[in-house]
Amino acid sequence: MFSRARPDLTPAQQYAFLRANPICPGMGRLHATGLVWEYRDKPTALSREYVMRITFQRGGTPDVFVKSPDLLELAASRPLPHVYHDPLRLCLTLPGTHEWTGTMRIDQTFVPWATTWLYYFEEWLVSDEWKGGGEHPDPDSGERYNRRVRRATR
To answer: CA angle 134-36-28, nearest 5°?
Structure first.
């Protein structure tokens, strides 16, 4: 019997899609098991510009980081909403729900999801109310990343 399920996209395919998509022009590195992609994002014409980094390991879920400006500084000692810690990265999917699968393109999912997150983050800076929906990750979940992933975020 033949399986008709589509195979996951490879890091090389994801990298090619990121390079070709005009909504996230940037630079990156492709390696044997994954990729790193950096680009600039601006959720609205009146927004500040953000330097973003996406990391992806074959078989995993992409992680999205804001490299600058520093989100903690912008939050002015308020706890950031809708993020994971250690390392600090955006909460864009609910784990275990299959909102994203390896057959989906990062440039068509995580890039626009990150832009939407930034839009709601800027609104939160003013209102102190997260209006972006979703479920907030438990800050005490104990989720830890290995050294290789933490190194990729630098």
So the answer is: 125
> Order of strands across the sheet with 34-41?
26-31, 34-41, 50-57, 63-68
Question: Residue 116 is which amino acid?
Answer: T
Residue 106 per-residue DSSP state: G
Whether the full predicted model's pTM is greater than 0.90, yes or no, is: no
Tens digit of each residue's pLDDT (9 = 90 or more) over 56-91 = 999 999 999 999 999 999 999 899 999 999 999 999
Cβ contacts of 130 within 8 Å, gap of 6 or more: 81, 82, 120, 124, 136
Per DSSP, the three-state class of 98 is coil
Q: Which residues pair with 121 in a beta bridge?
A: none
Residue 26 β-bridge partners? 39
Decide if 120 contacts 134 (C-beta within 8 A). no
Structure tokens at 18: 């990121």
Can you tell me which residue has the tokens 């995580």?
110
